[in-house]
Amino acid sequence: MIFIFSRTQQFKAVSLRHGNREVIVYHLFPAVRTAHYVVLRDDIFNNNMQMIEEVAFALCHVYAKATRSVSIPAPVYYADLVCSRGAFHISPDSRLVFGDSASVTSSGDSFDLDQWKRAFAHSAHSKIKEGMYFL
Length: 135
Description:
The protein has 135 residues and is α+β, with helices and mostly antiparallel strands.
């Protein structure tokens, strides 16, 4: 019998058989955080929930600011960073209204995208705008 130990505080034992030998591996038991996803539109996976789960899980391991996996897919973190830094790109002279109601329009209101394009005056430097400078 071979024992392999990891230097962690929470352990999970896995018993593997190889021929006449049994190997017990102790490794980190992950702190599982469940997530609830709602698929609004599926043009890629054709309602294959297993594939969606695998992609979401894989994307939890590619977040550039962390050396370990994160609890939600990395693009969600990136979108949050972009939105939080978006105000730095808006001209201070603009008269745009920020708030929770800005994303909801009633039947009488219209959304003027050109107004937002004009207010987006400050662009990133040409050497960094192709990368993820918002990190």
